[in-house]
Structure formats: structure tokens, C-alpha cells
Amino acid sequence: MKRFWILILAFAAFSCQEEVFLPLATIDGDMPVIEAVWTDNTFYNEVRISLAENYFDTLDTQLISDAEVFISVEGSSRKIPFGFNVYSNSYLPLNAGEKAEIGETYRLTVLWNDNEFTSSGTLLAPPTVDSVTYEYQEDRLFREEGYYIKVYGKIPFEEDNYYRIKVIENDTLKNDRDDYLLFDDTFGLKFFEEGLELNYSFNVGDKVRLELYRMNESAYDYISQLVNLLFNDGGLFSPPPQNPDSNIRVVKGDSDVLGFFNVTSVLSRTIKIEEKEE
């Protein structure tokens, strides 16, 4: 009888649980979101600026097209102005040939509505990619059959090891939350020499482009926090969702800012999956 009453009380306690909705912070005024990428390849260089939205907003993204944007090289008088491009909906260097140089430190400046925002980063030398191979694999635990790509290279650096790999399959970027392939030197980097196998199966005829980025720690931390946010399911054991910490700071004005400035080297390799003869 005693056990019966314990079960009754446990069921009653469970049935009385209520779903709790935490109030989400709202945006007061116009808060810009700056997403700036500055690399050693002119193809990737751009600055996107939009207005932040509340979580439940259904309006289209509002772009900011009237800001003054430029990048300066620290320790010199060099200044790289950007202009808004209506085709890309972003700011591009007015001189299309401008790009970052290894070892230089760059400062982004955005002037908008009496506000000034800035951030800086150093272009770090890229690692070495020796080869990119692929091999057909049968069904494995958690992996379906198909062709799998391995990247072989070497990372000789003792510090500032913060990397991301992007995978573009047939001109489409893999951009789900599982597709943010980030790694650092927490567990060593020897695996890169032994071959880093990507967790994707491909088919004959697929064209795959791989992009390897070496970032500054602040940009890496921003993307890592973004990934954690994407995996936040709002459950009992999940922390309250919050925006990633921006590496852009406010120099002038009373507006907050979101987003990040990513100064990064880029290595790109393209491979086409073809059936190999036995």
C-alpha cells in the first residue's frame, strides 16, 4: 500500500507540470548586424549590413545601404573604401583587385546614423593541403554507402589554430547546422596528416568544392557560439538562447551591434567524383 501511494503522488506531481515561456528580449531602435569577410581572395571579400529583427518577426530582412564602410591597414596610411552593390546587396571594395596580405592587420570601420563601429583582425598564413582523394565505402555505422572525400595536409603552427571547412556540392553550399565543420588544436592536429574524412557521401558525377579557412580566435568563437545557438532546442537542460558575442565594438553612438568581422585565409580545392575502374 505504501508503494501505491508513492506512485499516486509521483503521477500527480508530473501531471501538474506546466510549460513555462521565457520572455525574449526585444530590440529597441535600429540595431545593425554587420557580417564582414576579408580574405586573400577577392572572390570572398564583402561586408553585409542589415537591421536586427526580433525573434518572432516575419518581415523581410532590411538591408542598410547608406553606410560608409572602409578597411584600413594598421601601421600604414592605406585605406580601402567599399561601396554598396545592388546586385550582391552588400558592400564591395571599390577597387575589385583589393585583398588581404598575410601578416597584415586590418581594421574594419562602419559609419552609420552617427554611430561608428570597428573591429580588427590579422591575416594568418594558411596550412598546407597536399591532396584531396575520394573512395567508395559500403554501409558503416552512422554512415551510408557512397563516395567519401579525404583531405590530407599539414598544420605546422603552434598557436592560432582555428579552422572551418565549407563544402559546396554542385554549386550549393551545405549550410545546415550540422554543416559547420569547425576544429582547433584542442585534441591535436595530426589527424590532418593522416587524412580528414568528411562526413558526407557523394555520388558519381558530383562536383565538390572544399574551402578551408584559418581564422582569428574572435571570429572562431563567434561561429562556435552560433552553432551552439542553432542546436539549442529550448529544452529543460538547454541554456537560455542568446546572440553570439560580436567581435565588433561601438566606438561612437548609442546603438548596439551584432555580427562579426572575419579576417581569414582561404584554400580552395575542387574535385569531381568519377567511377574508378577496377
Walkthrough of the structure:
There is one protein chain. The relative contact order is 0.18. A hairpin with an 8-residue loop joins strand 8 (128-137) and strand 9 (146-154). The chain contains 3 helices and 16 strands. Strands 1, 2, 10, 11, 12, 14 and 16 form a 7-stranded mixed β-sheet that branches. The chain has helices at residues 2-15, 190-194, 217-230, and strands at residues 32-39, 46-51, 68-73, 79-85, 90-93, 105-112, 115-122, 128-137, 146-154, 162-169, 172-173, 181-184, 196-197, 207-214, 249-252, 258-272. Helices cover 12% and strands 39% of the residues. With 278 residues, it is mainly β. The model is unreliable at 1-16 (pLDDT under 50). The longest helix is centred in the N-terminal third of the chain and has 14 residues, at 2-15.
**What does the overall shape look like?**
globular
Report the sheet with the most strands, covering strand number, pairing sense and barrel closure. 7 strands, mixed
State the share of residues found in helices, binned by percent.
Answer: 10-25%
Integer average pLDDT: 87
Strand content: 35-45%
User: What is the element string, with H for helices and E for strands?
Assistant: HEEEEEEEEEEEEHEEHEE
First-last Cα distance: 72 Å
Radius of gyration: 23 Å
Q: Which consecutive residue ranges, at least 5 long each, have pLDDT under 50?
A: 1-16
Secondary structure tally, helices: 3
Task: Give me the count of strands.
Answer: 16
Q: Which class do the helix and strand fractions yield?
A: mainly beta
